[in-house]
Design goal:
- Strands 2-3-4-5-6-7-8-9 form an eight-stranded antiparallel barrel.
- It has two domains: 39 residues; 91 residues, no CATH class.
- It is an alpha+beta fold and 154 residues long.
- The protein contains four helices and nine strands; from the N terminus they run H-H-E-H-E-E-E-E-E-E-E-H-E.
- Helix content is 27%, strand content 39%.
- The protein is globular and about 70 Å long.
- Strand 7 and strand 8 form a beta hairpin.
Length: 154
């Protein structure tokens, strides 16, 4: 059926129709070979233990934002000069939080969390919403040690 669509005016299969299966096969092989390399640089966090190991009790920063998730389930910091406070817990494969920024209630949201090198990327609405990135500072780094990451809204 698919090949019928690629017949040219002479009734023969076009070059595209003959090469398409090979192009797809090469693409799949390249994707399979690249996957392990990509996984080494970044991954989706799927357990609370991973989140605690990589993110909890570390300073997360971005231009005018500073945030910390603490081991006792609290989150604190500042967002564009306003205080952020809330609570968090790990539910299934997502980080769920309830927070306020200043006097504005952000409500309850569960987020898919990805860590790529020194970035934590959170995707709101269980991975279907807007994304933002924060730089994970190591315990020994000082403010200004590295260039800040500008917000990544996807």
């Amino acid at each position: 059926m698919l090949r019928q669509r690629f017949r040219d005016l002479t009734g023969r299969y076009s070059l595209t129709a003959r090469l398409l299966p090979w192009i797809v096969a090469v693409g799949l092989v390249c994707t399979a070979l690249a996957a392990p390399a990509a996984a080494a640089d970044g991954k989706r966090l799927t357990t609370g233990m991973e989140f605690r190991e990589l993110v909890v009790d570390r300073q997360l920063t971005r231009d005018r934002t500073s945030l910390r998730y603490t081991g006792d389930g609290r989150m604190t910091g500042t967002v564009r000069g306003e205080r952020i406070e809330g609570i968090w817990n790990w539910v299934g494969i997502t980080l769920c939080r309830m927070a306020t920024v200043g006097s504005r209630n952000l409500g309850y949201d569960c987020q898919a969390i990805f860590v790529i090198n020194d970035l934590m990327i959170a995707v709101r609405d269980r991975g279907r919403g807007q994304a933002f990135a924060l730089r994970i500072r190591s315990e020994d780094s000082q403010p200004g040690d590295s260039q800040e990451m500008i917000a990544c809204f996807c």
